[in-house]
Every structure is written in C-alpha cells, then in structure tokens.
Amino acid sequence: MTLLNILWKSLWNRRLTSTLTILSIGLSVMLLLGIERIRAGARESFSSTISQTDLIVGAKGGTIQLLLYSVFRLGSATANISYDAYRALKDHPAVKWVIPYSLGDSHRGFRVVGTTDEFYTHYRFRQDRSVSFSEGQAPAGIFDVALGSEVAEKLGYRLGDSVAVAHGVTDGPAILNHDDKPFKVVGILNKTATPIDRSLYITLEGLEAIHMDWQQGVPPRRGEGTPADRIRKENVKISQITAVLLRTKNRLETLTLQREINTFQGEPLMAIIPGVALSELWSVVSYAEDGLRLVSWSVLVVGLLAMLIALYTSLQERRREMAILRSVGAGLAMVALLLVSEALILTVLGTALGIALTYGVLYAVQPTVESNFGLLIPLQSLSLMEWIFVGVILVSGFLVGVVPAMKAYRNSLADGLAVRFILPVFVLLSSFTAQAKELEIASSVGWLREVASEITCGGAKVELLPAVVPAGTDPHTYQLTPRSKMAWANADIRLMIGAGFESWKEKSAGPSGKVFYAGKGVNLRTVDPQSAAAADPKSEEQGHSHTKGASAQDPHIWHSPRITREVALNMYNFLAPRAPSLRSEWDTCLRNFVQKTKKSEAAVHSIISTIPSSRRILATNHDSMGYFAEMFGLKVIAVTGLSSEAQITPGQMKQAIEAIRKSGAPAVFLESALPPDTMKKVAAEARVKLGGELFTDGLAAAGTPAGTITGLWETNAETIAKALRP
Amino acid sequence: MTSSDLVLSVSHLHHSYDARGPVLDIHDFQLKRGELLFLHGPSGSGKTTLLSLITGILPIQKGHVRLLGQSVEKLSSSQRDRLRAMHMGYIFQVFNLLPFLTVRENILLPVRMNKARAEKIYSFSFDEEAHRLAEKLSISHLLDSRAGELSVGQQQRVAAARALIGNPDLLIADEPTSALDSDARESFLRTLFEQAREQNSSVLFVSHDRSLMPLFDRALALGEINRAMARVEA
C-alpha cells in the first residue's frame, strides 16, 4: 500500500466531491477549448467560402469590392466586362475552367445570378464540396430559375412556382419588375452554409432576355418589348457579364495569368486571388476575432479561479487525514507530496475530461452548427494555442496544490500541526457525534465559570473551558486573543453576562451554538447616567455599550449573592435539558451552592454591621459596586459611571471630590483592575484616606482569597469594613 | 537502545503561542521503560501542547525533551518525524482512522510508512502481525472491514493495534477512552496495558477522568507540574 494507493483510496472515498471538482475543471476546459474552436472555425469557414478558384476576374476597381460582390453577394459592380473578354479567358490555354457571373438584378432582397452550367459542375467551397440539387435540376431553358436553399426556405417557393425578377437590387417590392418575363422554378439547391444559399440562379441568356429592348436602363413601354414566348435562347446575344471565376490548368501559372489579365489590352480588367483577398478582408473584420480571443482568455481566468476554489476546498477537507498520517510518522515532505499529487491528479483528469467533452460536443453539434450558422468547426487535434491553454491549466493545478502544502509546512513549524490541524477538526466533527464528546462550556468571565462548575458538580462530566477574560483584567476593555476566540467560537455553550457587558464578543466571528445570558431573567439595576457622577455625554458615546441610552443597565451582578443564586437556578434550567442523565446529580449540587451563597451572604452582613451606619459610604472609581451596596445598605459615590472605559473629565473629578467631602465618607477605594492614579488624586484632594483595593471587575486569580465567588464577597466586605470603621 | 531505563525525560520545558505568556512551564518529569503513567489534566492545562512537543510535531522553544537518550530539541523537523515514526504509537481521542482504508490497512500504516519500524515487528509478514495484534484486541473478525463502518469502541481498538505495531517504545494516548462507556473503557485499557507490558512499551496516558487512575503505575496532575497553569486558570 503505497502513498499513491492511499491517495487513490482517499479520492475514491470522496468520489462525489472529487467528481464535482473534476467536472468543474472539465467544464472550464471545455468552455475554453470550445470558444477557441469556434474562433478557429469562424476563420476557417470564412476562408473556405470559396475554394479551387484560382482567380476572380472583374472590371477594374477595388479588390475587396470584387470579392464582396462576386463571392459574398454584397454591394455591386461599378462596371462590367465584355463577353469577348470572357471568351478570351475561356479559350486561354492556361485556363482549366471558367464560371461567368452576371449580376445586378434581384428578387425580394436576394441576388439573381446569371451563370452557366460550369457553375454547377466546377464551383467548389469548403475544399471540395460542389453545388448540388435537393430538388429539380439546373436551369436549362431561358426562363428557368434555380433557388438557393435559403431563398426557397424563406420565401416558401416550390418547383414550378413563378418568380418575377426585379431590376436592380432592392429589399422589398421592386420599383421595376421584369414581370412581363416571369421565371419558373426548376431546381432548389442543397444547403451550403455559404452565400450561395442566398441567391437565385438563372442562365446568362435569361438575364440578357429580361433586359431585351431596354434603352439606356429604361425598359420598353408596355406592349412594345419582345413578348417572352417569342424569345429563344439561341437568339439571345450576350454582350457583357460581371465577373468570371477561373481555375488554371497548372496552379503555378496563376500569377502569370493574373498579371496578364491585369494588363489586358482590350479593356480594363482586374484579377484577384481569392485567398489573398479573403485574408485582406478578414483583417478588416479582425476586431471580431480579437474579441473572441479576449473571451477565450477571460474564460481561462474564470475557469482557473473556479478550479482553484474547487481544489482548495477539497484540500482543506483533508486536514484530518494529514494529521493522522503525521501521527503514524509521515514527514512533512510526504504530506506535501500528497497534497500536490492530489491537485495534479484532479487537474489532469479534469483537463482530460474537458478535452473529451469538447470533442464529444463538437462531434454532436458540428452538423447543426454548420447548417445553421455556416460555421465549420474543425474536428482536428489540438492546436498550439490549445496546447498552451492546457499547459497553463496544468501548471495552475500544480501551483494550487503547492499552496496548502506550503501552508501545512509552515503551520507545523510555527503553530503546530496538532493544534491547528487536529483540534479544530475534532471540535468540529465531534459536534456532530454528540455522544462522542462531553458538552463544552465556555464562559466569558471567571464568575460564570465558577457558577457553572458549582452546578455541574465540579464540571466532572462536562468540559469547562477557562474563562475568556483572564482574572485581574479589566473586562470592559478586554480584547480577544486568537486562541480564546477559537475556543469561544467552537464551544457548545457560551455563558455570558449580557446587557452589553462583553463588548469583545461583537468583534469575534458569529459563533454557532447556544448562549446563556446571566443578565436575562434577573432584576438588573438601572442607572440614570444623568444622576450618576459620570455625566459627560461625550464619554458615554465613546464608552462601553452598557453606558449607552437614557438609563443604563448595571452588569456587575456578581457582587450580589441574591442574583448569583438566581443566575445559578437559571443556568441549571438551561444546562440540565442538555444533559438529562446528569439532572439529579446537578440538582443536589445546585442546592449545595445555594446554601453556600446564603451562608456567605450572612457572613457579609455581619461584617458590614460592624460599620456605624453613618459611615457606610462606598466611594470608588467607577460605579461597579451598586448591587453590593444595595444589598448590604451602603451608599455609593463613583467618579465615573458604569464603565471604566470612560475618560474622567476635570469636571467629574471636582464633582466627585465635593460629593465625598460633603458625605463625610471616611475613605475611598481602589479597584483591582484599574490604575490607582485617579483615586489617589481624589483621596488627596478630598483629604480622606485610601481604603484599600476592591475586586470590582470579577474574581481575582485562582488560589487567592478573592479567587472564588464567596471569597470575593467576603474579601471586599472585609476591606470595606476595615477602612470605614472608626 | 539506551543504557538508561528512562524512555522520556522532560526538563525546564517552556512553550508559548503568543505574548500572553507560556502555556507550558514544566520543571521536570520522567517516564521509565514499561511504566504506565497517568497524566491528569483538564482541557486548557496544556496537554495537547505537551504531547505535540514530545512527539516532535511542534518544535521545542525552550527546555529539554530526551526521548530514548536523544535530545529532541536538537533534531530537525524530519529527524523528529523519523523518531516519531520509529519509536512512538499515538492514539487520539476520536477519529484515529482513515475511514476509507480497511482495518488491516489502518493497522499497518506505521510499518508501511517507516522501514525501521517495519523491521521491529514480531511476525514474519505484515499480514501475520496485523492478525496477531487484531486477535489480541479482539478485532480479528473486522480486519477486512472498512474502518469507517466500525463503532467508536472498535475504532479505538484498531487505533490501539496501530499504535502497538512495530513494537514502539512509547505509547501516547490522548483521552482515548472518553468516547467509550465505562465497561468498554476498562476492558480497552486492560487489553492495551497487557500488550504494552508484553512489548515492554511505556504508556503516557492523558485524561481528565480520574476514575481510571487506579489502573496505572503512577499518576501525575498536569495542573501541578505545569507551572504556567496557575497563571492561566481564572
């Protein structure tokens, strides 16, 4: 079982996504090659509109013009050539065959071409295809007409129908109709997907006949012209034609013949080589080709991006596999090789599929496209351009495999494969298999973690993650670290204070799972910021969200034994349904905890009762001890409002100092998580002593007296009583 | 391989991921040959970091880890890979197996990946060795099943067989029993230990389930030996 074997089985295991990836690459490749083929096909079809004709001869004028009216049935000739010149060409020793064209009339927008049988026998397009009839035969009689397939189809003519030829080229009803000499449809041509389909074909004599008796472009008056039934083919004398297509006996003589014609003595003639004129014309419309080429490249770019995304996603899925392989001793090189090979395999298969699809689709639609659009898409092997496209795709596939391989390499060196690779995947996957792992509970602050720990009997059957905000840090200004963010986002249950307390939460990515808000369902203290010592509207705006609004809710609920009990009960009701088997066990622990808080509450009461009631004034930096004060009968004076984030203005300082002086407070207190400078200044100005440090913003570090909930209450009570007692 | 009977010794090991201070700060701890050590640690106590350092998946920032007399901190990344492949068996908490391979193929992964490990097997052929271990762990009837079709308990036994193949000196198990019920837990451990004893492999077993503690030779609380913990825990 080699590495390739593992790779193969892994791909097979993910056959649906692998197939989709291959398919998406294949479709991109197909689109790219398809457009490239259409571009090449358009060019090819254009240049093979006429073939085997070595020279086109017309009156002197523009070469493109001659090409347009003789081959594409566009525009018209400014002059004709004499029938004698035609005869001279026909009898020229170097000429194999000639096809005369006499142009100038039309029928409902379609050109009428006067020609001879040579047209039906010698005319070639698309290398070696000749004109053939789907119905009837070539016109033989003077008033016979054969229709191009498009003419017959659009106008709905059938054999035997009568057609009137209009003089000149008009789209709609003709101004001058040769209706005295109607033509009879004797043949309908097969579709050629060239301009041949858009013409009517009559004999040279027929064209001459309808113009019989005309004087200087003006038709004879009604009744004066020769009646149609009296005209015989033999009697019609052809005087001029418009163009001649010719083929030389020896193609090497083409240039000599062309020169000879261009310098023809009798009249001003011009001969053009169709291939040369066609490429000249093509260069005129080459912006269309450039447009298609631009589309090709855009498709390549979009296709590559789609492919990169598909490959990258499938590689991301494989991180767990990589972790397992690493654990059984696979080196980084092996893991990288695996990733790169997978990308390459998918790309190669996708490209092969794309090429196969291209040929398959082309083979299927080629006839339809050719007959409907006149586009001949060649079914040949890949062109150089197409090989370049395929090369670019394969190299990109390789590169996209290198990216995650590099990432795997760098991760394991810098951050550790185990941590980045194994853990998130485990956490993610295990959330699907509930019995495989215990409930993972994250808490925003230590107080919530302890409540959770108490009611889950020490957290033995659940995973209690460390609190997000570390002990001794100011929770108001706390910023999530990447690691705590990950743990927080992946937990099954998140315990929070709410009431806008966890402002860092809003900055972390929207986590899934359940959130318990301790502030919900308990009676929160509301503080009117106007009456609080902190009344600077500016600082409120910038400050913590719990100071916003007309009356703010006080989040510092951990100072209240009563609310702590309520939260414990609510949390129990929240957690118990998620672990039904543990309910009775937890029930006992909840009761124990409630008893514990009641005992502690009584202890705090007795500590506070040692302070004379006139001296029970609690002056702190920010208004965090409200619940405690309310419960144990203390009066609060805070320099700032609810949030420690707000900046203290000199006005607030003055106000607070005055209030402290007036109240007769014996001491002011420092807060553990805040810098002591402000309160030191206040104490000096108000001429009161510093009463020590209170743990206002949550539990202190584990192992210290204020590191537990009841310890926090009792420690704070002791500090207060010690400072305020006379 | 070494004159000392110490398989693993860790001293003054520090590791930190960011400026928030170390997640690991271990002064000293050792594992003797054949010893079954229970390392108790709640999540967040740094156990994944410790295991990543011992297995050489993470490079050592500061301190010493000696594995079978080799200083891991002095080895290059690929040398650590080789050391892990040759001398260690690892059992994860869950999802140990490549689900698209058969049980036999999963068990044989370490010996297929590493020649030196392959030379340490007891039997004449890989197949025979896979069968021998599967028999010991009562999964021989599953050898040709696809790993993805197995129950969690069966998967952990396959993982154990894979960790044991090629006679590794050190078996590391990271909460391998947390997905098992208590009956399966004990029988799994007894089988694992029996095999480990037979091969004279040391076992470093990490879990937060203290009820398993009595089954081991010695127990250590990671929270106690990791001095970074006191600072992290709130």
Describe the structure.
The complex is a heterodimer of chains A (726) and B (234). Chain A is α/β, with parallel strands linked by helices and 726 residues long. Chain A contains 24 helices and 24 strands. In chain A, strands 1, 3, 4, 7, 8, 9, 10, 11, 13 and 14 form a ten-stranded mixed β-sheet that branches. In chain A, strand 17 (493-496), helix 17 and strand 18 (514-517) form a beta-alpha-beta unit. In chain A, helix 22 packs across helix 23. The model of chain A is unreliable at 412-437 and 530-550 (pLDDT under 50). Chain B has a five-stranded parallel β-sheet with strand order 6-7-8-3-9, sandwiched between helices. A four-stranded antiparallel β-sheet of chain B has the order 2-1-4-5, covered by helices on one side. Helices cover 36% and strands 22% of the residues of chain B. Chain B is built from nine helices and nine strands. In chain B, helix 3 (103-113) packs across helix 5, helix 3 (103-113) packs parallel to helix 6 (152-164) and helix 6 runs parallel beside helix 7. Chains A and B meet through helix 1, helix 11, helix 12, helix 14 and strand 16 of A and helix 1, helix 2, helix 3 and helix 9 of B.
Structure annotation, total helices of chain A: 24
Structural class label of chain A:
alpha/beta
Distance between the termini of chain B: 44 Å
Largest sheet of chain B: 5 strands, parallel
Oligomer: heterodimer
- SS element count, helices of chain B: 9
Number of strands of chain A: 24
Helix content of chain B: 25-40%
Strand residue percentage of chain A? 5-15%
Strand order of the largest sheet of chain B: 6-7-8-3-9
Mean pLDDT of chain B: 83
Low-confidence stretches of chain A: 412-437, 530-550
According to DSSP, the number of beta strands of chain B is: 9
Rg estimate of chain B, integer Å: 17 Å
